Amino acid sequence: MVTKPEKIQSHKEIYGLNSLGDHLTSDRQPTEHLSYMTKATIWRVPSCSPLHWRSWDHERVVYNSGSGSTHLLDPVAAETLKILETKSATPPELAERVARSLALDSKGKLATYIEDLLPKLEKLGLVERIES
Asked: Does residue 120 have a pLDDT over 60?
């Protein structure tokens, strides 16, 4: 039986949390380049690992059939992953699409949050980068 996870913050409050619930401590500005990633880096969901979703209110759980792992994602992380399931994108493109989908500002904290989120999702095997 699948039970509903504990309540998490709404997507308008989520900026201070990453997909694993840790507080982001980065003071870097959204325009700074990351040493491991450029704004031209293209991200996608690996085609060999289909994702399976469950949703409750603003909470999303995804099962990665490639790794056998299940992850509780905040709304921004879930929307980012949903977008990458349909089409590869760069971090700025993702910020714009997530902002449009969740009615958020695509600049500032959201752009930084997504830039920090992508390598974490990569480490979990949920996304992969395609260097352009």
From this structure: yes
